[in-house]
Design goal:
Radius of gyration: 23 Å
Oligomer: single chain
Strand order of the largest sheet: 10-9-8-7-3-2-1-13
Largest sheet: 8 strands, parallel
CATH class of the largest domain: Alpha Beta
Number of strands: 21
Number of domains: 2
Helix content: 25-40%
Structural class: alpha/beta
Strand content: 15-25%
CATH topology of the largest domain: TIM Barrel
Length: about 475
Amino acid sequence: MTETKTTLSRRSALQAAAGLAALPLAAGVTARAEAAAPGQTAAAPVSPLAPTPPMGWNSWNSFAGTINEEQSLETATIMAQKLLPFGYDVFTVDIQWYEPEASSYSYNPNPVPALDDHARLQPAPNRFPSAKGGKGFAPLAKKVHALGLKFGIHVMRGIARHAVKLDLPIEGTPYTARDIADTTSICPWNPDMYGVDMTKPGAQEYYDGLFRMYASWGVDFIKMDDMSRPYDDHAPEIEAAAKAIARCGRPMVLSLSPGETPVPRGAHVRQHAQMWRISDDFWDDWGQLHAQFTRLENWNQWMGPGSWPDADMLPLGRLALGDRDTKFTPAEQTTLMTLWSIARSPLIMGGDLRHLDAPTLALLTNPEVLEVNQRSIGNCPHFLEDGMKVWTARNERGFAQYLAIFNTVGERDLTVDLAQIGARGSFVVRDLWARADKGDVKDSLTVHLPEHGATLLKLTPLV
């Protein structure tokens, strides 16, 4: 039998990871586990949270930091009607909900955010009126939950610089914001926060109080930013957030952002979070999409229940404060959804749902494609030839095989030798995007794909 070939990039990454595992780590960071065999997950689930890749919507791609309460409720209502029946159930308000003057994708260099008396950011009342009187996001979360959705928020690592300036007290301690802040730990792209020095008394208590507040609001999902790079420097705060969630009394999925999270830290990150970004912000650019192939190949060993390498949101439909529609061609959009599905990345829609068109809705809600994302096993990349990317997986029962073929160059025919992907015999071929059977094949399979196009097939053995 012909030996299945893994991607060269993935093999190189595994070798590099093994060499880096002995490097000094930040306090509390454990060494990386041995790499799993191709197509297998690294270890048993470490958390009952997120047994399948999370699915939902996030406000960043369409609203930047500007979304308000009215827009949130309008969007959540559309989401519940059109996407929830297909499994998209996490509604997330992204960055700067605490900033009264947020207006675009750029940030106010001297923000004066809404704060409570214990140094914790609050929803800006001019944008989220129901938060007045110390109610926080509880009223909005209640309405989102009533729609059948989970409620998520974006938060930044650390403590607000303005809270440090005011030297506000840390709840339940004799310490203040200045006592725990690390004013040398600054996010390079956002001016809102200082890092927290986890060696200082009161530091863990600050994070514990923060997540108790989120729990009281009814938060189900936390996207925590400025965490994954530099990873070892931020590892103590990653651990602090995970510990605070465990203590807060409410289950919350923790998603770390942005990337590129270092692959050699896979064992540590999956121990403390259920999702983590594998790249910087992903937008509708072919070069960025092409780069995600290698990243998903390299991270495949760490993918599995409760442990989801995150290729970032889906920049589809209307984007960028309504200024434009996605720049991805229809073929590239199919490639995006096929790759995220076969590699089992979380599916978080980023486009403005108020302008959701029929083709985008169909792309997001194909049940046979979503089954691959949510239920497939043994997911594995292969290298067959330049300009062609191939992934395989099996259905949940292990009987049928999924085959994703990607064309990264110009329009052409591509042929897959089935023996090279471990498939021998005759098969019934089903096109999952077309939701139609395409006849029988034996030994090899040829498809015609447009430039940057993809197909996703199901091969069922003939018996």
